[in-house]
Amino acid sequence: MSPVSATISGDASILEDNSDAARARPVLPDEGSRLGFRLTLPAQILVLFIAVFPLLMQLYISLTDWSPLSGHGWWSAWSLWNNFANYTDLAADARFWSALKRTAIVMIVCVPAEFLLGLALATLFADEFPGKRIFYSILLMPMMVVPAVAGYMFFMLFQSGGPVNDILSALSGFPVTIAWLSDPTLALIAVMVADIWQWTPLMFLILLAGLVGVPEDQIKAATLLGANPWQRFVTIVLPKMKTIIIIALAIRVIENFKIFDTFYIMTGGGPGVATETISVYIYKLTTQDLIWGYVAAIALAILIVLSIAAVFAMKRMARAREVPA
């Protein structure tokens, strides 16, 4: 063999060895992913600190009698340690349970009403009709109104000489001067009407997104098989929307515990405590009574309840995805 041939043969064998080595070499982790993780790590630590520190501070304050008037900074609240006295007081606080009961009443009335109205509107807007874009924009406007502004709007609407009584007077033919916001029952109805008006568009928007995602071919197949609109809705549309429905209901149930602006602007929790929800009650304890240790205990208890509700909703969503529609 000539020297040139030997050299070529040697180079070829080296290349084959290198290629075998490259194939045998283990695949290293993606450097790009590791770099991305390192770059975002400071931000992740900051977000974790922002989320965890207030929670730990709240737990710490809830085990003390600390308030801004105690003469100590919050870091010295340990000198006012009361173990779990705030939580035992919470269990015996009749006003807290009344506020929680009213919050539950508002949730039981408003959330189903918003869901049914939102579902009906989503079904209507799933089809094309003249002026759809204009009506769509008008329908979403209540959701864009600041809750405090919405509260003031309905405060004016439900005055004794307001538009609501004027409309009732025109329909009935005799003067109507109902004191909506002075009667405990009527005041609660008025604030619930305001909540339904403002947040039905959110329910509509979520449900419409789920409705347009239902496979059109399945609906057409059911139509060819002779299914009427109600049968198609019950057997095809609703099962396909299980996850979206759970998400929509979970969002509104959790948000219901945070209702404050509209209720406080309209009634201030009154007359008396007739419309005092849990958020309004916490606000009054915080700004008027200044018993922040007790407030921290209430807020932490509500957080635990809502977390359990969120976990339950997530499990229901997981089961909805696993069960074939």
TrEMBL record:
UniProt cross-references to PANTHER family, sorted A to Z: BLR7065 PROTEIN (PTHR43005), SPERMIDINE_PUTRESCINE TRANSPORT SYSTEM PERMEASE PROTEIN (PTHR43005:SF1)
Transmembrane segments: 41-61, 104-125, 134-155, 167-189, 196-213, 233-251, 263-285, 291-313
Record PROSITE patterns: ABC_TM1
Tagged with keyword Protein biosynthesis: no
Membrane topology annotation: Multi-pass membrane protein
Localization (cell): Cell membrane
This protein's record includes keyword Plastid: no
Pfam families: BPD_transp_1
UniProt similarity note: Belongs to the binding-protein-dependent transport system permease family.
Source domain of life: Bacteria
Keyword entries, A-Z: Cell membrane, Membrane, Sugar transport, Transmembrane, Transmembrane helix, Transport
InterPro entries given in the database record: MetI-like, MetI-like_sf
Chain ranges of the ABC transmembrane type-1 domain: 100-313
Protein name: Multiple sugar transport system permease protein
Cross-referenced SUPFAM superfamilies: MetI-like
